């Protein structure tokens, strides 16, 4: 386990015990000495607060026994834990993407359109595919070539094509055209009219509203 992973696990333990305790502290009887030492190290980084003598006296009165050690998260520790639990995932090395996912590189204007699309999820009758918003949120950018890298399922690819089609219908066709050329996935309502189950209010589903041309690069 790497150092940051070990630190997050300690912060998680403190958070769980804080939630279970009415006073918000993790006490000496709730962590083994090695874990207490790790907590002491996190105090030096400002992530954890150790109980002062006065705090320990109050806790001793509450517990009905001597409390010799107690700790809790600082606001910085709380935020570090919250961020760590939602941090962008490391991008898989080339060739190691999940077998059901395809590496995709988007130019900035495509990524901007895609962010608008996933941001409108609650307002759309044909919402983004499951997991697409997470892929957008955790996408990494290669600033050298100015490309955003995602790893998408075929359903998510079709959903991206739909989002770029909406972008085409409201202003710019370049993003959808580029995606079609590079990945062979194009949204076509006319072609999809007889495919797939109808969505709410008779609208075509995204799964049936985009075509994958397997022979295209």
Description:
By secondary structure, the chain is of the alpha+beta class. The chain has ten helices and eight strands. It has helices at residues 3-20, 33-43, 53-63, 75-86, 108-119, 132-137, 154-169, 174-183, 189-192, 206-209, and strands spanning 26-27, 48-50, 70-73, 102-106, 140-142, 147-152, 185-187, 210-212. It has a three-stranded antiparallel sheet. The longest helix is centred in the first third of the chain and has 18 residues, at 3-20.
Blueprint (SSEs and pairs):
Elements: H1 3-20, E1 26-27, H2 33-43, E2 48-50, H3 53-63, E3 70-73, H4 75-86, E4 102-106, H5 108-119, H6 132-137, E5 140-142, E6 147-152, H7 154-169, H8 174-183, E7 185-187, H9 189-192, H10 206-209, E8 210-212
Helix pairs in contact: 1-4, 5-7, 7-8
Structural class per helix/strand content? alpha+beta
Distance between the termini: 40 Å
Report the sheet-strand fraction: 5-15%
Q: Strand order of the main beta sheet, please?
A: 1-3-2
* Biggest β-sheet strands, sense, barrel: 3 strands, antiparallel
Uncertain runs: 194-209, 212-217
Helical residues, percent:
40-55%
Radius of gyration: 25 Å
> Per the principal axes of the C-alpha atoms, what is the gross shape?
elongated
Averaged pLDDT: 80
